[in-house]
Amino acid sequence: MNKEHHIIIDEVVKLLRGGNAHIGLKDALEKLPADARGDKPAKLPYSIWQLVEHIRIAQWDMVQFCADQNHESPNWPDDYWPKETAPKDDAAWHDSLKQIDSDLEEFIELFKKEDIYKPLGHGSGQSILREALQIADHNAYHTSEIIVIRRLQGNWPL
């Protein structure tokens, strides 16, 4: 690998972990009161729990798409959004966050070892670089929604 290739990989990994121009998911959820997880402010379609679960499901799907040529994605949009506005308990909340972290690390390891430009053999032209940028973009978008909800709840900034 040449120097430029390493620079791209390093920068994309930074972006996946939270970027340089925006706050990451972990920081957006820091000190979130447990009772705020399921609160859905007026005129907004989702709670923080629903956004976190959506991030988990969508990211998992993208990781599995890259890792497993036989992966079948959930049905869009129904299977990507939880119906419940709040987690059933603290364990469900922590399990979701743990899976987001572990799936992201799995993807980063895959990203570092693959030809990032080569189309995936089982896709329709997608490369692992495209999927990395999509994960980063998707997670950043929904992380910003979490921050907006926290602002409306009155528990932001920290």
UniProtKB/TrEMBL annotation:
It holds the Pfam family DinB_2. It comes from the Bacteria. InterPro entries: DinB-like, DinB/YfiT-like. Residues 27-146 form the DinB-like domain. This is DinB family protein. It comes from Mucilaginibacter corticis.
